[in-house]
Design brief:
Number of strands: 6
CATH class: Mainly Alpha
Helix content: 40-55%
Shape: globular
Number of domains: 1
Strand order of the largest sheet: 1-2
Strand content: 5-15%
Length: about 500
């Protein structure tokens, strides 16, 4: 077994976000013992993890609208210059030096972020709560977010570097680091990694709950979860506690648990029920103390022309203030690596011409279509200003797909279709007996194919469709192999 050395360096990063709770002064490498002598030091380390996750080599590009959506065949390969890195990813060429470099960066940055979470977690229990501005309340919140991020990152490394879950598969694939510092951690099986992630998330859920569900529940409403307009009663509250949608908030932890429970269902079918139940908990959660808003709602389909990311539906996201700039540079540069993110043919990608994901989130460029989520609208920017830097990680449509999967596994065909139709209704698609789902779904296998198509449409440029194809063991490109859905681990697994 190969030894993995984790050499974590704590960096206080200048975070690229419009959310002022993330604004910190850039510094050089910081001595850990000195850093953790104040509550603000813990804030800075946690903020640094969020910032690193939002970088272009991770969810700021490659694990959202970049590499992952290329692998999912969201884009036509002819939009990439022949021989370019994305062209090679579109053909699953992982041996090329440039594709290997991107994969290595994903691995190293993910595990470095995990190590920074572990560094924080190794010290926080021994730190006096009086060092934190909000005392023990803040201490528990920071610990909960760090545990949730550790689980989030390990789970995505599992989804990338291990095959889809299979009860017969007992091989070991990736390590799960819980100790800091650490020079060795054995690779673990898919089931073992999931067990560790579930343990972290269930603890995290209880730690963040007091803040998000009791004292400041209303902060999970969309106008406080995603943006702050300065008119609410919490105007004088510490900025660190605002914009909970950009952090591992209670609903995000629960939604992530639903995602992980669903993955675990292959090994223990009771987890499909658990995934349904916790998804229901999120979807029906009373967001305000006076219960004036009882659940998360879909963005009205007539509001998506300038609200292309449908921010009301996003439970957890990251922020990269240079997102639009970075995206524009890649699509306008004249270099040999110029990228045209031409979507699959409209007739292939969409099955309903009235679908707002087609009419309001794509744009014709000659005879091709592009996604406009990361392109500022012309003219009045409207609600796009609230989400221009947003990198959606979890949205409520996924919870409906999870619930639908449980129901189809229970042979409740009509119930499963009803859940998918709830999403499609919000997208202005025809539903019911005349809808596509009722016509095309008649068993679990047909369900998988249709939901994978829905994921490709609903999570355009968000990187999630790849994981649907992989878990359902569907191949998005003719001639590819199931092994093409597993990224090779870097040759050098030392993480600096």
């Amino acid at each position: 077994m190969k030894v993995i050395s984790i050499i974590s360096t704590i960096f206080i990063l200048a975070l690229t976000s419009c959310n002022s709770w993330l604004d910190i002064t850039p510094k050089d490498t910081v001595d850990e013992d000195k850093l953790f002598t104040t509550g603000d030091g813990y804030r800075n380390v946690l903020n640094g993890v969020y910032s690193q996750m939002a970088s272009t080599s991770m969810y700021g590009q490659e694990l959202s609208w970049g590499m992952l959506d290329v692998l999912a065949q969201l884009y036509q390969s002819r939009g990439f210059t022949s021989g370019s890195t994305y062209y090679k990813f579109s053909t699953y060429n992982y041996s090329d030096k440039n594709t290997k470099s991107i994969i290595e960066k994903i691995w190293s940055q993910a595990y470095n972020s995990i190590a920074n979470c572990n560094s924080l977690l190794s010290k926080i229990d021994k730190t006096d709560s009086t060092l934190f501005r909000a005392l023990n309340h803040e201490k528990l919140l920071i610990k909960g977010e760090a545990l949730a991020l550790r689980a989030f990152l390990h789970f995505d490394m599992l989804r990338l570097f291990a095959p889809a879950p299979d009860v017969q598969d007992t091989k070991n694939y990736i390590p799960y680091f819980t100790v800091y510092p650490s020079t060795f951690e054995p690779d673990r099986s898919v089931k073992e990694v999931l067990e560790y992630a579930i343990k972290d998330l269930e603890e995290a859920k209880n730690l963040v709950a007091p803040h998000d569900t009791i004292d400041w529940r209303y902060m999970l409403t969309d106008n406080l979860r995603i943006y702050y307009n300065g008119t609410d009663s919490d105007a004088n509250q510490d900025l660190f506690f605002k914009n909970r949608g950009f952090r591992m908030n209670y609903l995000a932890v629960c939604a992530l648990l639903a995602r992980v429970y669903n993955y675990m269902g292959e090994f223990d079918a009771t987890y499909y029920q658990k995934s349904y139940d916790i998804a229901e908990h999120v979807l029906t959660f009373n967001l305000t103390p006076d219960k004036s808003k009882s659940n998360l709602l879909f963005t009205p389909y007539n509001d998506t022309d300038v609200n292309k990311k449908r921010y009301e539906e996003v439970i957890f996201c990251l922020s990269n203030q240079k997102l639009l700039e970075n995206y524009e540079y890649l699509t306008t540069t004249t270099s040999r690596d110029k990228i045209n993110f031409y979507l699959q043919a409209t007739s292939t990608l969409f099955d309903d011409n009235a679908d707002v994901r087609r009419t309001n989130t794509t744009e014709a460029i000659g005879r091709n279509q592009i996604c406009t989520k990361n392109i500022a609208p012309t003219g009045a920017i409207g609600k796009y200003v609230y989400c221009q830097d947003m990198l959606p990680m979890i949205r409520i449509s996924e919870l409906y797909y999870i619930q639908a999967e449980y129901l189809i596994r229970q042979n409740d065909l009509s119930g499963a279709i009803e859940k998918i139709d709830a999403v499609r209704k919000a997208r202005n698609c025809q539903i019911g007996s005349m809808g596509v789902m009722a016509k095309n779904i008649n068993d679990l296998e047909s369900f998988k194919k249709e939901v994978a198509k829905e994921a490709l449409r609903d999570f355009m440029q968000e990187g999630q469709a790849f994981f649907y194809y992989k878990r359902f063991k569907l191949l998005p490109k003719s001639g590819m192999k199931e092994s093409d859905m597993v990224l090779p681990k870097p040759d050098n697994e030392t993480i600096h």
